[in-house]
């Protein structure tokens, strides 16, 4: 795995390339430079709000034998530069930049929460000749209130606090996912890869302004998502219930639902093997049909 950067007038985007193992931890890629076409279909993993690309570190190895595997840091998240806006169209623009630069042929999008929402939104703006084969939307929020929006706006206006230790960072992550069973060791890994260290203290790697989110309503565009879609919900999720997942599947033209037991909102952290198996089965089915 290496860290890669895509430079351009819209800002610096960071992504992880899981297909390469180099001693040099970073490589800078100039805007507009072309890379050789990959033979394997690609998977781009997309994290949730305030999360970062390393959230997918445990999942990516399940797919490396058959796919070119990447994970994106949204603008204002992880090691990507802050953005001038954080609407869903802005995030979709980030994804378009990466796809146009990195993926010459067929690809899948696998997104959690915000990532799943943006993957569906992105899929509505593609031509018939697009290489997008399918989308996995994992435990996404299907509705939000104005009160939630106001809370997010107030939170987004506050500065990112300094945190004194990585265990304290991990504890904050744990508090933000009360329905999760992710291990303490995995949380420490997420903490270590998700902070800047400054003067013996840490700050989380996201722009607080991302919390000032646009109210969610995927039903505005769900009917325009023409690619096959798998909607996954965690059986114990506090964000997406089975009822909400079924309703979204009905609104999507080519979709089915899968519920993963003993999983909360962070399905892929709670049950990585089950999640990866379900995604792999979906990808294999539609990759075969696309090739035939």
Please name the defining characteristics of this protein.
two-stranded antiparallel ribbon; 11 strands; 292 residues; 2 domains; alpha/beta; single chain; nine-stranded mixed β-sheet; Rossmann fold
Would you kindly provide a written description of the structure presented here, covering whatever features stand out?
By secondary structure, the chain is an alpha/beta fold. The chain has two domains: 2-154 and 215-291, Alpha/Beta hydrolase fold, catalytic domain (Rossmann fold, 3-Layer(aba) Sandwich); 161-205, no CATH class. It is built from eight helices and eleven strands. The chain has helices at residues 88-102, 114-123, 146-156, 166-176, 184-193, 242-251, 267-270, 272-291, and strands spanning 2-6, 13-17, 26-29, 42-46, 68-72, 107-112, 132-138, 195-198, 201-204, 229-234, 255-260. The chain has a nine-stranded mixed beta sheet, with helices on both faces. Strands 8-9 form a two-stranded antiparallel ribbon. Strand 10, helix 6 and strand 11 form a beta-alpha-beta unit. Helix 1 packs across helix 2 (114-123) and helix 4 packs across helix 5. The longest helix has 20 residues, at 272-291. The radius of gyration is 18 Å and the shape is globular. The two termini are 32 Å apart.
């Amino acid at each position: 795995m290496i860290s890669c950067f895509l430079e351009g007038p819209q800002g610096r985007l960071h992504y992880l390339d899981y297909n390469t193992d180099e001693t040099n931890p970073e490589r800078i890629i100039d805007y507009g430079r072309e890379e050789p076409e990959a033979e394997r279909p690609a998977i781009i993993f997309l994290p949730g709000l305030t999360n970062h690309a390393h959230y997918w570190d445990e999942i990516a190895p399940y797919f490396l034998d058959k796919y070119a595997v990447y994970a994106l840091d949204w603008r204002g998240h992880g090691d990507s530069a802050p953005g001038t806006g954080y609407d869903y169209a802005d995030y979709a623009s980030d994804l378009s930049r990466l796809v146009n630069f990195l993926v010459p042929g067929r690809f899948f999008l696998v997104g959690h929460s915000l990532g799943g929402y943006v993957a569906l939104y992105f899929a509505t703006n593609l031509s018939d000749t697009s290489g997008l084969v399918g989308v996995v939307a994992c435990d996404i929020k299907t509705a939000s209130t104005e009160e939630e929006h106001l809370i997010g706006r107030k939170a987004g206006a506050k500065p990112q606090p300094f945190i004194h230790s990585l265990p304290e960072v991990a504890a904050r992550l744990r508090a933000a996912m009360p329905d999760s069973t992710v291990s303490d060791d995995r949380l420490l890994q997420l903490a270590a890869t998700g902070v800047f260290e400054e003067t013996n203290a840490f700050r989380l790697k996201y722009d607080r302004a991302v919390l000032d989110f646009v109210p969610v309503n995927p039903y505005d565009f769900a009917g325009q998502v023409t690619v096959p879609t798998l909607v996954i919900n965690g059986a114990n999720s506090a964000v997406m219930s089975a009822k909400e997942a079924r309703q979204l599947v009905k609104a999507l033209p080519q979709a089915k639902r899968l519920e993963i037991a003993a999983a909360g909102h962070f399905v892929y952290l709670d049950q990585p093997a089950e999640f990866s198996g379900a995604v792999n089965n979906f990808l294999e089915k539609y990759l075969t049909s696309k090739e035939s």
